[in-house]
Amino acid sequence: MWLLFAVGSAFFAGVTSILAKCGIKKTDSTVATAVRTVVILIFSWLIVFIVSSQNQIKDIDGKTLIFLILSGAATGASWLCYFKALQLGNINKVVPIDKSSTILTIILALIFFQEGVSLPKAAAVVGIAAGIFLMIEKKDVSEKKEGTKAGWFIYACGSALFASLTAILGKMGISGIESNLGTAIRTAVVLVMAWVMVAVTGKTKEVKEISTKEMIFICCSGIATGASWLCYYRALQDGPASVVAPVDKLSILVTVAFSYIVFGEKLTKKSALGLLLLTAGTIAMALL
């Protein structure tokens, strides 16, 4: 069952990127992140009350709470970097770099959870790495030719780093807590972090300037993220992090498909080969 939740997480995560991109054409990415987190917080706590897990709050020990807070902070940092990268670059430029967090997650899972890596799994990791390299390489060359700003690359790398930490800290923080409650608590941490960033950067007034159209897209992306989160951490609770994380990264297929339909972003043959390798490696990780 955890594998189905992982697949659901991938789908909603892929949709999130498209909706978010539509919502930050004129709206600042940090402001948009803060607004959409409000939607996610409401969504996540609604689920908590639906499954009646709110009574477990009093049973959360100090260690679990610390890891949930750290995981929430890592998620917040990853989001801020990711949506800033999306605002600066094309989706097909940002997403492959963000997905490189899979490799680091696997390494950290091996260290902290002793989740063994067999020879077939190692081969799958190599396939994922090769696929990401092919997609990133094409985008870097394209960026130089266009002579545009490459700031998105730094933010995308930051997103990947914090995303990998999110998976590991999240795994540690949900070992003794119902997954939906854990997600809701982490979302509260992200909310505080996002709005602090808005206040510190002096962008509070920009919230009122968001157009109705972009606000709708931002809120929809928040709902999609909430659904992805609930699926992802439910999968993490029952399944191995070294498998759940790669399956979640299959969201790139959804993202690439919709980026072509919505934004007309196309892949070259080299990038398509990279996507194929990344997908094959991810599926192999899930099956091995």
Automatic annotation (TrEMBL):
Annotated TM spans: 30-52, 64-83, 103-136, 152-172, 184-202, 214-235, 241-263, 270-287
Designated name of the protein: Transporter family protein
Cellular component GO terms held in the UniProt record: membrane
Domain EamA, first and last residues per copy: 2-136, 152-285
Family: Belongs to the EamA transporter family.
SUPFAM superfamilies found in the cross-reference section: Multidrug resistance efflux transporter EmrE
Recorded superkingdom: Bacteria
Pfam families reported for this sequence: EamA
